[in-house]
């Protein structure tokens, strides 16, 4: 059987954005060819493509496809239509900064090349989108290298959600050290929180780790304390969707609870992410917009019948913010930032 790790999470093929439909995993491997902007918007919105770096790459490739189809007499008309397409894709999800980061980078190509003709600009946009993807693979590999210095062969690692290859172009962020360690003949015991309500841990992280031959154990989110108490966890590795300038880190809902537990049990808690996920324009985590998702994800999804009474109020925030005081280190492609983060992140983010 072809391993899930041999599939590209997101790529470009002629006139289509090609994604592995993550809503179907692990039961079915479905490849989608998306051509229209509403299809691409919907794929990001419904998590067919998901994970902060992967949605940035999908949006960059997507807005390139939009640019290719723009009919414009002159630069100004091209710019206006490009900007509209960019804002549309940017509205698909609010929390992960990689989405706007990638789209802003694409728009800069347009604004920096006003003197060129439109086909030339479109070609530059194609190159920029491909570069965003290639650089992501390089960043993830470096994150893996730095992360690997924090653990030793045989260690128990707890992770939450999926910050693996399926969330990036390759390797992942939180799971990059694990995949890289495997390449070098190392093994770790990885505990994956199932990650309610969308089960990215159960459906995606365990799927890619088992495919890589990693000793993988699935636990429900509410089992983390017991597993830590039993001494099975040496470190927690999680991804991030937006890190504020003070080190507060926003990630999948449930992450901050894991950080609080880790602090209690004296277990190091690391956030792993590329610098494209660090938002120096946001001073602290309280200013990060937290996506709220439909109630049905909690009451119905995955169940054969509804599991809550009709009419009950449901609150479904998709992310939470881990206070910087709970974070032992933030692992980026440029190295590991340590507290105080306002200083270490500023140094890491210097051009
Ligand atoms: O809602 P999702 O599945 O897109 O949330 C993903 C996460 O929270 C990941 O941990 C984060 O994006 C980092 S992915 C390298």
Your description of this structure?
The chain is of the alpha/beta class. It has two domains: 4-140, Four Helix Bundle (Hemerythrin (Met), subunit A) (Up-down Bundle), CATH 1.20.120.420; 141-348, Translation initiation factor eif-2b, domain 2 (Rossmann fold, 3-Layer(aba) Sandwich). 39% of the residues lie in helices and 16% in strands. It has helices at residues 37-45, 52-68, 75-90, 97-112, 118-148, 176-183, 200-211, 224-229, 255-265, 296-299, 341-348, and strands at 10-13, 16-20, 31-34, 156-159, 189-193, 215-219, 235-238, 242-244, 249-252, 269-272, 278-279, 319-322, 329-332, 335-337. The strands form three sheets. Strands 6-5-4-7-10-13-14 form a seven-stranded mixed beta sheet. The model has no long low-confidence stretch (mean pLDDT 97). Bound molecules: 5-S-methyl-1-O-phosphono-5-thio-D-ribulose. 5-S-methyl-1-O-phosphono-5-thio-D-ribulose binds at residues 47, 50-53, 96, 161, 163, 167-168, 172-173, 200, 239-241, 251-252, 318. 5-S-methyl-1-O-phosphono-5-thio-D-ribulose binds next to α2 and β9.
> How many domains, as an integer?
2
* Overall pLDDT level: 97
First and last CA, distance: 44 Å
Which cofactor or ligand species appear? 5-S-methyl-1-O-phosphono-5-thio-D-ribulose
Radius of gyration based on Cα positions = 20 Å
**What is the CATH-assigned architecture of the largest domain?**
3-Layer(aba) Sandwich
Helix content: 25-40%
In the CATH hierarchy, what is the superfamily of the largest domain? Translation initiation factor eif-2b, domain 2
Structural class, from secondary structure content?
A: alpha/beta
Give the strand order, joined by hyphens, for the main sheet. Answer: 6-5-4-7-10-13-14
Judging from the principal axes of the Cα atoms, what is the shape? globular
Please write the CATH class name of the largest domain.
Alpha Beta
Oligomeric state: single chain
Strand content: 15-25%
Number of strands: 14
CATH topology of the largest domain: Rossmann fold
Largest sheet: 7 strands, mixed
> How would you spell out the order of helices and strands?
EEEHHHHHEHEHEHEEEHEEHEEEH
What are the segments in which pLDDT stays under 50 over at least 5 consecutive residues? none
Number of helical regions: 11
